[in-house]
Amino acid sequence: MRKVNVAEVVKEKVADTKLQVGRDKSDTIRLWENYKDQSLMWRSLTLIQFPTTLFAIGFAIVMWSTREISLTVPSKPMPGTYAAQDIPDNEFVNVALDYVNLIATYQPRTARRQFEEASGMLKEPLLTKFREEMINSELGAIEHSARTQVFFTDPLKTSVARRGNDVTVSITGERWKVIAGAELPTVTSRFRVTLTTIPRNKINPYGIVITSVAFKSNTKGERLTDADVDGDSMGADRWK
């Protein structure tokens, strides 16, 4: 029988368990070529991100070092009378719009309630004139003729003018009216509401009241001017 060399068998088994030799240079080059595009992309992103990050850090430092905090706190309502110059324009505009909506947009069933509410925004002698011309006269005509009216305000044409303690708000819009079921043509109209201040109270925290109201109806499509409105301030149609 042939003798088995134990040492040679052991060497063969050990050789079988050894790791294979790694790829040669050609395999490495092929691997690099497969990932070349991705590598160039990440390199480009790195080159872009680095200066961008530096710029962002510098911008953040500049903004932090030059920051300025400014708080605008409106004056707290206090007992007494506010001067008009201490009240922002939007407060006067809001009061004027509320008044115009009450007297210019109505239905026969709601007109009386709206006019009574509008009268609480007026100051003498305008209040007495309003009661005589609107509540005692015009209101009856509205209810008997079943008149419905809607006033569409154009906010882009609203303007504010100040003169001493008086503030005049000009409100322009389209007026649509229906009388006894018959629809009338839409006309352009303007209200000029002059306001001032009186001692404040809980219901009227700024003490804003209305001292004068002028109205101009434009039926020919011409451009309305302040002089046109002022010229009609004492007309019988000033409220409608």
Spatial gap, N to C terminus: 135 Å
CATH architecture of the largest domain: Roll
Elements, N to C (H/E): HHHHHHEEEEEEH
User: What is the CATH C-level name of the largest domain?
Assistant: Alpha Beta
Instruction: Summarize the main sheet.
Output: 6 strands, antiparallel
Integer-rounded radius of gyration: 42 Å
User: What is the fourth-level CATH superfamily of the largest domain?
Assistant: VirB8 protein
Briefly note the CATH topology name of the largest domain: Nuclear Transport Factor 2, Chain: A
Helix content: 40-55%
Structurally, how many domains make up the residues? 2
In DSSP terms (H or I, runs of 4 or more residues), the helix count works out at 7
Strand content: 15-25%
Shape: elongated
Number of strands: 6
> Quick check: average pLDDT?
78
Helix/strand/pairing class, anyone?
alpha+beta
Q: Detail the poorly predicted runs.
A: 224-240
How does this structure look, described?
Helix 4 runs antiparallel to helix 5 and helix 5 runs antiparallel to helix 6. Strands 1, 2, 3, 4, 5 and 6 form a six-stranded antiparallel beta sheet that branches. The chain folds into two domains: 60 residues, no CATH class; 148 residues, VirB8 protein (Nuclear Transport Factor 2, Chain: A, Roll). Helices cover 42% and strands 21% of the residues. With 240 residues, it is α+β, with helices and mostly antiparallel strands.
